[in-house]
Amino acid sequence: MDLQYIVAAFVLLPLLGFFVTVILPSSRELVISRVAIGISVLHLVLAATFIAYWTFYIGDPIYFDDLVPLYHTQNYHFGVGLLFDGVSATYLLVGSFITFLIMRYSQYYMHLEEGYKRYFNTVLIFFAGYNFTLLSGNFETLFIGWEFLGLSSFLLIGFYRERYLPIRNAVKVFSIYRIGDIGILAAVWALHHLSHENLVFIKLENTSLMHHYFLGHSDVGIFIGLALLTAAAAKSAQFPFSSWLPRAMEGPTPSSAIFYGSLSVHFGVFLLLRTFPLWQEQIFVRVMVGLTGLVTAIAGHYISQSQSSIKPQIAYASVAQIGLMFIEIALGWHGLVLIHFAGNAFLRTYQLLISPSIVNYLIRDQMYHFAPSEVQSHGKWNTTRYVLSMREWYLDDLMGSLFNRFKLGGKWLGFINLNNILYFFIPLYGIGLMFYFYPNTIPPILKPYLPGFIAVTGLMMVLRSFAERKYPRLAWILILFNHLSLVLAVSFNEIFDPIQSIVFLSGVLISGIIGFTALSYLRKKEGNQVNLFDYQGYHKSYRITAFVFLMASLGLMGFPITPTFIGEDLLFSHIHQDQYGLALIAALSFVIGGIALVRIYARIFLGPSQKPELSHPYKTS
Hints:
mainly alpha, 24 helices, globular
């Protein structure tokens, strides 16, 4: 059998399990769990066998180029490529074994839960995204798996959909993930212009080629390194993003173990390992990676000691260990990093899986062996450290203030309402289209400023959507107009094949129409009660509508289920190397738009139901 089919099977097996469990009825718990366990066992056996064969008979990295060609032009190539090397082998074996443990554990832990089938569906989707990411051979393939990790994380944190706090924290974690996405988008954009090709990861090992690319472009190398560090820090809960990890523990304990104790939280480490040749010669970047890890290790250690709940203790202890891994990567100790990753993953999985029993033992011990502790004074430094640790070094407040600034900016743009869109923005967009089809009519004084002006207009719309509370359909339309504005802005920036714009807009327009139809249907049924002031929990009454709207939201944000995902990369390739401002505006538009879409979906369809007959008295687990 060709090796490429075996490597592809590591991604296809979880997808097969997902499709099989989707068609099974929710009442068949035993069959659902056995399918999931069977897939994980088969995956583990295949992974162990292939890794043994690769270790003894191959040993060198193997790359499979263009397994699934998606889009090609003269200067652009987008295809699914897979890479298998030592880093992939370590992550694959650890991930496969831990997933098997979690599947087996969940079979009984999740028994009689209302979302039993949904839980296994989501874990299988996560496992497919996990394998797709670690076996990715280029940035485009990696970003597909990266997005699936973010989606499955959001769904599992918000697994208890009728409760307030899990949904709120799911939106918060997804928002941090989207900030990290800016880093990958920025790095891919800069790297594309530097190398004038879609670089595959296997080429990064060519030190002479990398030296040639960055010779005289050390500033670009620093930019790429810091962008990747931002993405890695957000994914691995490093400073200043550390506060999201304990808040992600609102999901079921086994999902907390597989996501935030062992596998998903280590993908920032994986990203830095995979891209190390890009920034290894940039001393400033290596120092920043090491400092990020050092600050996180210190903060995580002290915060974990001050937590009164066992899950946050484990979360911050894991964050501290990942901080040490960042230091090891910066020092070039990659073999030690992989050993450290495996040890930390298994330890945190074990700790989280036994945490319910530990809590029970501690409560029993307190009941029968209680003794008051002595209060001692430890000086100003220790008192300050303790107070800072109790407040988690104010990292959650820092992230909250960042998103509040986005909301404040949206509130300042209150003049962007439905009337002004109809009477001002649509006519202005029409004038822009006229300029595009008849470029000779553009006044010469305006031509250099059109891309930036139109892109800023789109960003204003998405900020307004982020702050909108009263009219969900208006928030939806604003995000749709943001995408239209971005396409027009880039079209003025550089002449390229209009087919590329159509590729991007195909998914946007279809998803936009479907989502708007779903919102209109819900408004027709429920009237003006449908708003974004609070979580309304309509998923119980409108399950199909909720699912359709979720798919439409994913399509509109550029999730890899429509051609828009490829179109995003195409648009960024037409933003010039020196246009950092335009690239930042475009990235912010995509990221804030994605957060706004998830917020719309969560506030309308998730959370405690507003209907008394469907409401629940509890807010959190």
